Amino acid sequence: MLNVLLVDDEPWVLEGLRTMIDWNKYGFQVCGEAQSGPDALRFIQEHRPELVVTDINMPVLSGIELIEQSNQLLAKPPKFVVLSGYDDFSYAQAAMRQRVAEYLLKPVDDEEIGELLVKLSRKIGDEIEAEHHQAKKELLAVSHMMNRLIQGEYGEAMEEQIKRSLKLEGNSELQCLLVWIENVFDPAEVSPLLTREFEGETGSLFQDGCGRMGFVVQSGASVSGRLQEAAIQIHRELTERLDEPVIIAVSEPKRSLRSIRELYAQTVEVVERKRCLGKSGVFFYQECIRPVNRERLLQTFKTLLETVQEGDPEGITACVKESFAWIAAGPVELEWVKTHVADMEWSVCGLIKDLNGDPAALMKAQERQLGTLGEIRDYRALQAYVERFCLQAGALLSELKLSSESNTIYQVVQYVDREFRGRLQLQDLARHFHMNATYLGQLFKKTTGKPFNEYLGDKRIEEAKRLLKRSPLKISDVALQVGYPNTDYFINKFKLKTGMLPSAYKQDAGNSPDGPMGER
Q: Which residues get modified to 4-aspartylphosphate (predicted)?
């Protein structure tokens, strides 16, 4: 729909124009009304309607003066249709000199206004299409030059060409503004806003190799005070129109065309860092990029590795987020970060291999899902890569540990059953099986239902009962055989467990072929 503004100092005339004409039928919608020339001029500057229907004879600012000032202030003024009750040829001549689309007398004839709106709708549509075509050609040409400059290509001939295209002065102070939108968008959604907000300023619109829209502006006195205001207005309109997250990054000011590459790099850096944090808004390079504590960042990676070993999914996600928040807070080279991610991958794969897992299978699955680490070109992709790798590795390590622990504790119990006659200590077992002593004790009790020392004591007493019942060994020899070098200590342990002295147990066993009561 094309927008039309209705201007008349008589409210009843405005109401008649709004309600008696079927604007939608001709491809128009009434976007506003004004009862004075100054109000109309402000509305035109802010909302840029394609058509204005105005009375001529108004106080303060007449219709003719409204048209004159609009033509002077705007690079692309709207079409004007003049309505007047004064059938005066001089008015008509003045209106036509201001490039008025049509001059109509009140009261307006329905058929006449209908024919006029059909003609204007077609004419405005043709002009908009022609402008879009021309703007697209110019955007492609300028974008080609800008992308060559961004990639580091430079020369005197190219400098002169860019100066002519951007209409820049010799040693101009420049700033770059870059617009990023979450999903694929039509550049036609962005370019009119940029062009409008910086209308009258020296600069140029371009599209980079990733499809983002940028604007290099000569940041003189005329623009420096309102650059932030313009960026905020662009962000507001794009967010409302597209209903998508929008980031607008603004570089610091620098002089000379050679600085454009650096200015563009600043805006890309801001965009990538804010994308990692899921932010939306207007961000200035000077305000959001600060030096980062690399040692602190490495500590977050160390914590992340420990969390992966623990296999805690929520902890892993939180650690990844914290690590990349540090990355997003300061200028850290992507390749530097990738190097330390590769170190972490190597450490994790080593842990998996130590537990008899298959690290190659994990890395192949990661590659199928998100590609290789070397292929990553931005922080957001790197964050997704690291988070998925750590979550998958944490789950695999937990599974391998569970399997390994079950196998290890089985071996420990078998070892104790076989070697109980020797001098066994929990700490010695832990060293032998490469486990933490406290954790081994907990796992041993969970598996056997008894603490280690109780299990070992029961095992020795059971063997002592067997020897006392079926062998002629003396009490002291039995004690030594089952791991008690001290006979008195053995006697006390035996009585505590069985309620009998070893000698009494042996005597009862000798009196009965089946052994003592309860030992059948």
A: 55
